[in-house]
Specification:
mainly beta, 5-stranded mixed sheet, 4-stranded antiparallel sheet, 47% strand
Length: 330
């Protein structure tokens, strides 16, 4: 009997240390709803697009506004209610040199050093579904018509990738812009070379692909379907490393990133849940719930971005308008 009681106590202790809903620090970054957000790879910057404040690039070290931008201008300009913010996609290059903002039909690349825009581009033929920027300023655009476009903003080189036959839902790119991972409603995620447009690996799912991600070290890819299969893949062999282990019939992800050392995966979903996973096994290691948006019933918030800060800290930006900092255990 005593042994059983001890086991129960230990189990309760494990639950309490793996499910925490209280961040160690919380900052408000938007009064109303947030439309899109990105946290830099080093956890020092966040680009937040909101209906109330336009686009703000935040310094996450000091919680200071670095720049405030507007999508329909080529220079720094403060957001006004006469020019509503429609930016639905944001990205920051891994080296913190460029920021990118996009609505459905256009994108702007910004210099993080000067705050000035470097290019403004209109999209033709079809609207944007997802977009990302690399260290060298290369842009990867996934479109509703199933076409993926890779653009070098400095040389003007442009390549159209036609490997998908349905709507693109998510795109990712290696830090140097050389490799792309794209997922669509055609049940496949494709890992391909942006110089040749040649497919290197195909990751097949039983349902449409909703989210993809690449680790920064060139080891792994992640792809999630609309139902049970959410998998981590070896980029050298193309073979599955692990599947995320969860009980629900489906788990939709709104934000995904790998840890700096590629041993962990961090995911956020539209139901406020932040999870930490083991890459090798797919086991869930830790779980939190972000702060809900005020006045929502039931309490709700979409996790839009996840970053890994210093000293064992995860950072989230969510539709509730808060940046939250979480302690995690290795």
């Amino acid at each position: 009997m005593l042994k059983r009681i001890l086991i129960i106590i230990v189990a309760i202790g494990l639950v309490s240390c793996t499910n925490q809903d209280t961040p160690k620090k919380i900052w408000r970054h938007a009064a109303g709803g947030v439309l899109a957000a990105t946290i830099s790879q080093d956890g020092s910057l966040a680009l937040v697009s909101s209906s109330d404040h336009g686009m703000i690039l935040w310094d996450l070290t000091n919680n200071e506004q670095k720049y405030r931008w507007q999508q329909n201008t080529k220079d720094i300009k403060f957001f006004t209610k006469t020019a509503p913010n429609l930016v639905l996609f944001t990205s920051i290059s891994p080296n913190n040199k460029y920021a990118l903002s996009a609505d459905k039909d256009s994108f702007i690349v910004w210099s993080i050093e000067t705050g000035r825009s470097l290019t403004y581009t209109k999209i033709k033929d079809s609207s944007i579904r997802d977009i990302v920027i690399a260290n060298n300023g290369n842009i990867l655009i996934g479109k509703v018509n199933g076409v993926v476009v890779h653009v070098d903003i400095f040389s003007g080189r442009r390549i159209e990738f036609l490997g998908h036959n349905e709507k693109i839902n998510s795109v990712a790119m290696s830090p140097n812009g050389r490799y792309a991972l794209t997922g669509g409603s055609d049940y496949v995620a494709l890992f391909w070379d942006t110089k040749t447009a040649q497919v290197i690996h195909r990751f097949i799912h039983p349902t449409r692909i909703t989210k993809v991600a690449l680790d920064r070290n060139g080891k792994y890819a992640f792809s999630a379907g609309s139902q049970r299969l959410s998998a981590i893949w070896d980029l050298k062999t193309g073979k599955q490393v692990s599947k995320l282990q969860y009980l629900s019939r489906s788990l939709i992800f709104s934000a995904v990133t790998f840890s700096k050392d590629s041993t962990q995966l961090y995911t956020g979903n539209p139901g406020r849940i932040l999870n930490r996973w083991d890459v090798a096994t797919g086991d869930k290691l830790q779980q939190w719930k972000v702060t809900p948006r005020e006045g929502t019933r039931p309490a709700s918030s979409v996790i839009l971005a996840i970053g890994e800060g210093k000293s064992g800290t995860l950072i989230t930006e969510s539709s509730s308008g808060f940046a939250e900092f979480w302690d995690y255990q290795r």
